[in-house]
Write a structure and sequence with these properties.
heterodimer; A: alpha+beta; four-stranded antiparallel β-sheet; B: three-stranded parallel β-sheet; rod-shaped
């Protein structure tokens, strides 16, 4: 009889201890979950920015299209900096080229567009 | 009635008819319990108490009894068997208020080892027969120097062998009830442990999800690094966005056939425009147009 009472007391005590542990673990889980959700939210923003401004393959494809279509007079590549020069480009082409560059996600470092009488020249540096 | 320095002591028989008005000790006559003398090859009273139920087997009526063991000598004991519930019932029927009782003793424990002949009332008394205290008609007592119980109890120092009155109110649980409580507690513990295991799994799963997410998207490990990388990209995005918005906005300004942009220069996040306009009025129109949108990093040079 006495032994049973001791066992009951021990069981009750262990129940209280386990209950406290459950509560703590639950708090920990909620906190981890909250942190993870915040992490995913922040990460999603970063992923969007990365895909936009750090998409090398897409940038290279675009530069190739510009080369093919507008035939720059000069092209230099230094690391990840591409320099394109266009001499005596037509008004229509400069409009089209301008739209292509500005609508892209190429990181434009320099633009130098000059108009002397009817002659238009463009010097552009982009970073991929 | 006797009056001791500490507490009054009353001798209770089944004919007790006095009123106890103060908290007192009571000594029960042999009518309230069973007593048996035994000689065993055991020296410990505790071990004798464990055997008491079997010693009284077949003697006691079927009821729940408790036992008290009094050691007379090395291997000789007197075992007292008593039923607390029955005693309580009897005392109640005699008009003895439970709250007026301090401790309960037995005549056996208080007159142990005494060769006695004591008068209890006009008809009965108590005496010792082979060490057992018996409640007997007064005619069977040795009348030489017979004393009354009251006179003896006045100065009697009571022993430590009292019955605990509080036991009357103790909650008693049967084996079945104890087993049920044990089972319920074990079940509760099992439920809680299951919950803990589930929670641990959830925490581990969350951790794995995070690791997998980081690996798939090639992300840094911490939020701090994440924020740092984000800031780097924002340093790129903001000026690039502004450049594009500025150029698109400025180019929307309708120029006449004589007007044109002479220079569009962008370097180190600074945009410079050189524009040829017809006259001052047009210059003002252009400046007004520009001022509608807050373009901070643009320098406009107008010449005619």
């Amino acid at each position: 009889m006495k032994r049973k009472i001791y066992i009951i007391f021990a069981l009750f005590l262990s129940f209280l201890v386990l209950l406290a542990y459950v509560y703590k673990t639950d708090e920990r889980y909620k906190s981890d979950k909250k942190y993870f959700e915040q992490f995913v939210q922040d990460a999603s923003k970063l992923i969007l920015l990365k895909n936009k401004w750090s998409n090398k393959s897409s940038d290279k494809k675009l530069i190739k299209r510009i080369q093919t279509r507008f035939k720059p007079t000069g092209i230099k590549v230094k690391g990840n900096i591409y320099t394109l020069d266009f001499e005596d480009i037509t008004k229509i082409n400069i409009t089209r080229l301008g739209k292509m560059l500005l609508n892209s996600n190429l990181i434009i470092k320099k633009i130098d567009l000059r108009r002397e009488d009817e002659k238009i020249s463009l010097h552009v540096e982009v970073r991929i | 009635m006797s009056f001791s320095k500490k507490r009054e002591v009353f001798f209770i028989t089944k004919n007790f008819n006095k009123k106890i008005e103060k908290k007192s000790d009571i000594v029960l006559s042999p009518e309230f319990y069973w007593a048996k003398r035994v000689s065993l090859g055991i020296k410990s009273s505790y071990k004798v108490r464990q055997m008491a139920e079997s010693i009284f087997d077949g003697i006691l009526p079927s009821s729940k009894f408790e036992y008290k063991v009094l050691k007379i000598s090395s291997n000789n004991f007197i075992i007292i068997a008593y039923n607390l519930k029955e005693i309580q019932k009897e005392l109640s029927s005699l008009g003895v208020d439970k709250s007026m009782i301090n401790k309960i003793y037995t005549a056996q424990s208080e007159f142990l080892n005494n060769d006695i002949s004591i008068k209890v009332n006009k008809d009965y008394g108590i005496s010792s027969v082979d060490g057992i205290i018996v409640y007997t008609p007064i005619q069977l007592l040795d009348n030489t120097n017979i004393m009354s119980i009251e006179s003896i109890l006045v100065d009697k120092k009571l022993s430590k062998h009292h019955l605990s009155f509080q036991k009357f109110d103790k909650i008693k649980l049967s084996k079945k009830e104890l087993n049920a409580i044990m089972f319920i507690l074990m079940l509760l513990n099992a439920i809680v442990i299951t919950d803990i295991i589930k929670q641990q799994k959830d925490i581990n799963s969350l951790r794995e999800q995070k690791i997998s997410f980081i690996e798939i998207n090639n992300l840094p490990q911490t939020s701090f690094q994440l924020q740092s990388m984000q800031d780097e990209f924002l340093k790129i995005e903001l000026p690039q966005k502004e450049l594009r918005e500025s150029i698109f906005y400025i180019n929307k300004f309708k120029l006449t056939s004589n007007e044109s942009f002479k220079l569009i220069k962008f370097n180190k996040n600074r945009l410079t425009y050189k524009i040829k306009l017809d006259n001052k009025k047009r210059e003002n129109e252009f400046k007004k147009y520009i001022s509608k949108k807050s373009i901070s990093s643009v320098t406009i040079e107008v010449y005619k």
